[in-house]
Each structure stands twice: as C-alpha cells, then as structure tokens.
Amino acid sequence: MNLALKDAAHTPMRFVLTAFGVALLMTAVIGMTGLYRGVVGDALLVIERIDADLWVVQGERAGPFAEGSAVAPDMDRRVAGVPGVADVRRFTQFSQQFAFEGATRRATITGADIPADDGRWLALAAGRWLAAGRCEAVADESTGLAVSDWVELARDVYEIVGSTRHMVDSAGDGLLFVGINDATAIAQKRTSEAIYLARAARGTGEFAGAGSSVAQESKIAAVLVRLAPAADAANVIATIERWGDVRVLTTQQQRDLMLNARLWKLRLQILAFTGLILLITAIVVSLIVYTMTLEKLYEIALLKLIGARESVVATMIGQQAGLIGLIGLAGFLLSIGAAELVFPLFPRRVVILAGDLALLGLALLGLALALICAAAAWIGIARASRVNAREVLA
Amino acid sequence: MSPPVILSARGLARHYAGPAGLVRALDGISLDIQAGELVGIFGPSGSGKSTFLMLAGLLETPSAGEVWLAGERVSQPGTDLDRLREVRRQKIGFVFQKANLIPFLTAAENVALSLELVDVAPAPVLAHGCRLLAALDLSHRADSLPARLSGGEQQRVAVARALANSPPLILADEPTAALDSVRGRQVMQLFRRIAASRGTAVAVVTHDTRSADLFDRRVHLEDGRLATRRQE
C-alpha cells in the first residue's frame, strides 16, 4: 500500500496547489534566465549583426556602447585608405524622445551609412530598407511606429518605410534606423539661442572644441570596418592606432566591453535574483516535505505502535518526497506553459531557449530537486525515527 | 485442562524519578490472562492502569519484573524496545479510547494495513480486511473514509484492525470512553465475542462499569498495586 499516494489522493488540492506554487517559482526562474538572455541578446544585437570586423572609435575611449565616442566626420575616408580595409561605414547611436499620436515615446536612433550600409544585416518584418537620401526611417515595432507612419524628429518629418521586430538596445528601447546624415541632424538639434551662443564663441576662438582634433559638433560615434579577405587585422589596427586620435576595437572586444563593463552589474543582479529564487524554491520544497512529515507524526506513531518497521515509515516519507519530486516535474512543465503565455506580454524581451529549459530541467529537477527532496526526506526520516509509539496514547 | 496463559505479568514495577522523589506508578503487579479470557482492569486515575497497559503492550520496559507472552519472556528491565516491535506486530492488537484510524485510508485499508506490515500480499490482505469488517457488521462501510464513520463504527474498525493478524492478545485502553452507553456496550460485547470465539486474551482498561457484567474477571488497581481481584 503506497501510503504517500493514498494521502495525496485524499487531499489532492493540497498537491495541486503545491504544484502551482512550484510552477510559479519555476516560472520566475525561467523568466529571470530568459530576461538575462534577452538583455544580453539585445545588447549584443547590433554588435553581432552589423557585420563589422573592427570598430574605430574615439581615442582612449571604449565607445560607442561602453563609453561615449565621437570621431571626426571624415574619419571614414581616412580609414578607407588603410591597406587591408575592404569597406567602411559611419555609425552613430543615441537615445531620443519624440512625440507620436499625443504620447511621448522613446527610441534609439541608429545612423546607417546609406548607401554603404545596405541593411542586409537586419531582418525586416515589413516594408523596405532606407533608399532615399533623407527623411526615411525604419522603426522597430516596439517604438509603436508602423510602416507609413510619419513622425517628427528634430525639425524634420520622417516616413517609416520599414519595420523590424525585436531590435532594441541594451536598455530595451526600440531601434529607429535613419541615414547617418539624418541621425547627425537629429543629434545636433539645438535651440536658436544655443546656435547663436555657439557662433559667438567661435568668433572669439573660445569654442568648446579648442584643443581637440575632433570637431565637437561631430556626432559620428564610430567607423565600422570590414577587412579584406587576406588582410591582417593586427596590421590594420596598428596602422590606424598610430594616428593617435582613435582607438580600434575588434568585435570580440566590443562584446566583452558590453557584457563585462556596461552590463556587468545588471547581469550580476539578474543572476543573483535567479539564485535567490532557486534558493527560495529549495527552501519551499524542503519545507513542504518536512511539513508533510510533521503532519503525519501521529500516524507514524500509530504505525510504530502496531509494529511497523522503521523501513515502512522511512519508505512512506521517501515516497512522499518522491511525490514532491513528481510535483516539481509537473510544476516545471506548468511553468514552461505559463512562461510561453506570460512572458511575451512583458516589456523586455524574455528569451526562452530549449537549451536553457533542458539545463534548468536537468539541473533544477534532475539534480537539485532530487537532492532537496532527498535531504528533506532524510531530515523527515530522522524526525520520524524519534517519534515514540506511546505518543498515540498521550 | 485450563486454557494457556497468554499474558503473564510477574512482579511488574515501573518507577519514575519525580520532583517529589520516586514515583511508583506500578509497584510489583503479577497478573495472568488466559486465552479466551476477557479481563477488565479498573481503578481511579493515577492508579497505574495505563502504565500497566504500556508495560504489557511492550511500549515501555519495566523497572522490575517481567512480561511473558504466550509462554515466552519478552520484556524485563533493560530490554530493547525496538526489538519488541516484531513481537508487538505478531502478538498484540491495540484498541484505544480514540479509534486512531489513518484518515486517508478507507475502513478496509485501515484493517488491511496491520497485515501488510507483516508482509502479506496486498490483494488477500484487503479481502481479509473486508471479511473482518463483515464479521463486525461493517461490510457496507468498507470503502468509507474514517471521517464518514460514526464514533461507534470507527471503534469497531479499530477492533477489526486489532484483530487483523489474529494476535493472541488484545489490549484496549478505555475503548468505550468516547461512546454512548449503547455503542459502548456493543463494543464490549464485541470483545466478549472475540474472546469466546477466537480464544483471544483481551485486557480492557476502563472506568466504565456499565458493561462490567461482560468481563470474565475484574482487576482493580490502586496506587500501582492490585487492590482486589474478583472473578465473575
């Protein structure tokens, strides 16, 4: 007679609620893991997809993502002349608020060097890539803009000619692609008074860019370099850096800077929360097994009174722990369903990878849950072994 | 030829160290109960009735004296109680004031559990449980959970459980205390029937004198000693 199963059948709602509780905790674990994946994925999106071998950025800086960066507007022509360079593109990216349909929206303006940048590196969900010289934009769906919408940026009105899906920056703001010259114009938007004061300063030779080789009004953050097939990257980097006013970063360095500098604390925090939820899950599951044992102390005493061997009691507690393990499995399956349903509604992208689920399933259920249940069962059995048959008569 | 002695308590004593000195809960009781005999153990609170039941039921070891079961010495000072679990399982059936049924098992399963503990296969065990319940007029309640049974029915299921592995001795601790007089008498009649028909030795600790006529013998305890012994 499987006493644990009989008990479960007697009070099924308690076990169903336990499964739901475990499912919610595991949904949170899947969510945190997925959020981590999403944040990393979003942050690396441009770096990995834009198809650049080298990033030429402002000297002594780690731009354009980990630090601010501004290079001379003609830097692309200088870099293009370096032996081993196949092609170059100017790049800029900055956050922008704008009004649309009476509401304030946010987007990350990304300047694409048209026509050198043919947009091959991104997948359009609708419409087309930038074709005209000016005042066209491709917007990510998360900005709330759709193809054929018109939106005012700086002092110009842009037509949305294409849209993308899930293309956001590390902060989760949707990308809005415009031509590099448009991006510069948007970034340089100033009030009339500011323009007047700048002109006055230039007249006295006291403008802010004095002492710098980079024009301070330059909004070009980096020059993207694709190397010729036979080019030696180290030589190209050494040649460019010898100029002294720029720094050259490889794509791998950009990845490292993004993950280990800019996103380090966020990643650590998400992982800490994931660990915390796992710990809470472990404690909850342990408590459930232990509480179920405590609830049965009277029955255990009775079993001992009528002569049950310790192994009978231990088996019952073990079966109970096994049942909790099965409930954990059910909870995990429920949590996958819940995650698929709920997380698409979240503001940040939550990436649920089959590999992560398999790892979670294996690590969390196969190993952690088994260990937790075994440990809790062991504690329960130790407690049950102290139960005296006389307690029935008390 | 007289029936064999099933329970034999010889000079049984149980002493505790209390704040006011040594407490003699049981002080040298000798008592034999034969097969088929129904013995009532009476006495006021604190007279040592329950202590006697603990010692006879092998739930405690005596400070002095011995307990013999079916001709075998099973307990004396220093005996390992865990080792006696096997003896309890094979030779003693317990009935308590409360039925103490396992709430998530049906009446038949509660009865069958005793047999499963002695490694009898589940299917015949359940059939045997149902037969026992039928013998106690409870066949219609075999599939009911304890919560759905009346107090009297629960107590009869408890009796059936005590009988399941046909122990030679049944020890009952105030089995009618929670029942009205009619149900209480029914349970006592049940013990009477079991003792007569199965040859089981039954010792019932009770305050209830309403069914005193059913006992073969009444034993009175007072201050841990046998006060009077009356043969009905």
What features would you describe in this structure?
The complex is a heterodimer of chains A (394) and B (232). Chain A has helices at 3-10, 12-49, 75-80, 180-187, 192-203, 233-241, 251-262, 264-295, 297-305, 310-342, 354-385, and strands spanning 54-58, 85-100, 103-112, 124-127, 136-140, 150-153, 156-164, 175-179, 222-227, 246-250. Chain A has 394 residues and is of the alpha+beta class. In chain A, strands 1, 2, 3, 4, 5, 6, 7, 8, 9 and 10 form a ten-stranded mixed β-sheet that branches. In chain A, a hairpin with a 2-residue loop joins strand 6 and strand 7. In chain A, helix 2 (12-49) crosses helix 7 (251-262), helix 8 (264-295) packs antiparallel against helix 10 and helix 10 (310-342) runs antiparallel to helix 11. Chain B has 232 residues and is of the alpha/beta class. Chain B has a single domain, classed as 3-Layer(aba) Sandwich (Rossmann fold), CATH 3.40.50.300. Chain B is 30% helix and 30% strand. Chain B has a six-stranded mixed β-sheet with strand order 6-7-8-3-9-10. In chain B, strands 2-1-4-5 form a four-stranded antiparallel β-sheet. The model of chain B has no long low-confidence stretch (mean pLDDT 86). The A-B interface holds A 1, 3, 6-7, 9-11, 298-299, 302-309, 312, 389-390, 392-393 and B 50, 53-54, 59-60, 85-90, 92, 94, 96, 100, 102-105, 109, 112-114, 116-118, 122, 145, 161, 173. Chain B: This is ABC transporter, ATP-binding protein. Chain B: Residues 7-231 form the ABC transporter domain. Chain B: One of its GO terms (cellular component) is plasma membrane. Chain B: Belongs to the ABC transporter superfamily. Chain B: Pfam families: ABC_tran.
